[in-house]
Amino acid sequence: MPEIIVADGGSSDATRAVARGYGAQVVESAPGRASQMNTGAAQARGVWLCFVHADSRLTHPSQLAEAIASLDAAGNERVAGHFALRFIRHSEGRHFLYRYMQAKSATNRRYTINGDQGLILRASLFGELGGFDTRLPFLEDQRMAAAIVRAGGNWQLCPHRLATSARRFEREGVRARYLLMALIMAMHIAQIDAFFERAPGVYARQADTGRLALMPYFRVLRALWRDCGLRASLRMCWRIAGVVLSQSWQLFFAIDLLLESLVGRGRRGATRLHDRLLRHLIQHRVGQALLLVMLLATVFGPLQLWCRLRENPPVPAP
Length: 318
Known about the structure:
Blueprint: E1 5-8, H1 15-21, E2 25-28, H2 33-43, E3 48-51, E4 56-58, H3 63-73, E5 79-88, H4 95-104, E6 119-122, H5 123-128, H6 140-150, E7 154-165, H7 167-172, H8 174-189, H9 193-198, H10 215-228, H11 230-246, H12 249-258, H13 260-263, H14 269-282, H15 285-311
Parallel strand pairs: 1-2, 5-7
Antiparallel strand pairs: 3-6, 4-7
Helix pairs in contact: 4-12, 10-11, 11-15, 12-14
């Protein structure tokens, strides 16, 4: 029988009573996903660890058994597993963006694997890596993913999907949330830590979420670049353009999804064309320079205008 451990970070509802009612072991922890998961893992006695966020759930009765069997069959002590996502939604609209995020979670590509997809790995590997990074209240999943790769491990997609709540997207606005996620990932991959120092609330607790305002983050960017000076700001922008360019496959992946009704589900002709040919034509210094200009024009032009209008809609004339 698997151990079920719920790491409670100071909840004020019936979480602990409900968990114990279902036979789970409840441990108390400092708040924060990384701290809570580290605390829960420290109590576990199994060979394998499976981390699942509180707003996610398994969708098949033998999902864990099949996942561990598939990871065991890989023959690699440093393999880690994750699941593709299925969003649990309570509102209509934005069907394509949700479908895109679900499909992308099944690609197994770098930077598409996150904590919402669950994490399965051997307890020995988790201990060797030192657990989750607790420096920030978020990004612990990306830092763990990078640590696994650095340690010589590899990622494997496990059978069946993990159902996860879409409430953050629904509360904050799916487009605004996705844009902020892209900004967070770009800053993380480009290693611009000063952004997170200046925007400590960039990832609000679930209980504190509401309609997401993006303009404060544009102001942080402007202040950061102003204070750094022109040369350092251009270097930061150059790194960000390189990050965006490295993810050029996502545009072609979206094209494949749009064409599914015509060519059939799962056919990824545009993505394969990118990987085999177009990637080499796109990802170079000239392409990076052109993208840098386009990003600056877009971010401080139509994108910022859209955010202003969304957050401060014009008042109709009486």
